[in-house]
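INTERNAL AUDIT FORM
Audit reference: QA-55
Scope: verify that the stored structure record matches its stored sequence.
Auditor: D.O.
Record contents follow.
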Amino acid sequence: MNLGQQSEGKAQATRSVAGNVIRGSLGNLIEWYDWYAYAAFSIYFASVFFPSGNQTAQLLNTAGIFAVGFLVRPLGGWMFGRYADRFGRRAALTLSVTLMGIGSLGIAILPGYAQIGALAPILLVALRLLQGLSLGGEYGTSATYLSEVATPHRRGFYSSFQYVTLTSGQLLALGVQIILQQFLTPAQMHAWGWRIAFIIGAAAAVTVMWLRRTMDESENYKLAVSESTENTERGSLRVLLSYPRECLTVVGLTLGGTIAFYTFTTYMQKFMINTAGLPKEQVTWINFVALLIFVCIQPAFGALSDRIGRRPLLIAFGVGATLCTVPLLTAVSQAHSALPAFGLMMLGLIIVSGYTSINAVVKAELFPARIRALGVGLPYALTVAIFGGTTEYVALGLKTIGHESWFFFYVAGCGLISLLVYVFMGEPSRRSQLERETRELGAGEREQAKVDEVVADPA
């Protein structure tokens, strides 16, 4: 093979990687848009699905249902992780976005408490459970897929798009909210305007479903299929449990990160309105701009991890979360104007980026391909269900009993636990299962190239 052919081959490989990352990421974006539309618009529809009362009580009810959606994420992580390891990443990702779209459409057309009484919140819970199943499978499978299709030595950069699109989903939800606020009155937003956001999510899910069907299957998955003696080995819970240290590592490194992320993203909007007393429209803009910057810095942090390793970034996050959470949240609660509130939120998001930018690839590097989607998805989903999904509920619950500041210490304490995990864990990129598989794939390709040369020129 001459130099020109090698260059063309590398260019095609780069385009293939970029195309698969884009298609996978767009699906991830829409999944998370559908999920976050609930959190973003709950300030408007809380009064639609629950009896009239004080604002905190209604928000507490919607936050409770937000948490319920997280409770089934471990089941989704198991179901979709098992499915992805047995039948392919592409098939699992296509199925997950389909379920999410069905959930969004259901919420968009669901009658309120005034029309069907207590059945309204019951059906809302059912639809959030469906979305929770979908998202439980989405994270582990998409994190696995993005890490596997990424170019070696650039896995940190490419896998950072997991949180680029995750946060972009929230950003898109806020963007839709801003646009609707410009054209609809507050009364219209509360009455029916919020339903438009869920209709958009359902329509986008249909488009993404088609895009995901055109993705290439992961070569690592194909290798796992060729190496497995039995189909039941792939996605097996029994096999996963033979990796107890790796599973516990996923739990430990996720604990502080997921609580800090949900604190400085989804809960921050309610915190600024309900505690700092800032206007809803102003808070929407603060969150939108801060999250836009947050999205843009994820690839930079991911690329940095490819150069210096994953562990230094994780430790930096752990130290920041432990030492800075209490003063940051205390300062936000006392910020009565937009600029200081924005600056404080941005500081929190920069700290969180040490976790969000690389957590997907760190988890993927721990497991072999035959159980990777399950290994990444299930322990993560369990941790997020218990801690991440209850973040808002814990915060609002402590506020109702007059001890909101306890929540600040709760977030910092969980950050400290994760910091201890980061300190004592080894550098994941040096023991990466992904890199071992890449070497095997490369050796196989070289052997096949030799065979092809002999066939083409027997002499």
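Auditor finding: record pair retrieved intact. Residues 3-49 form the longest helix (47 residues).
Action required: none
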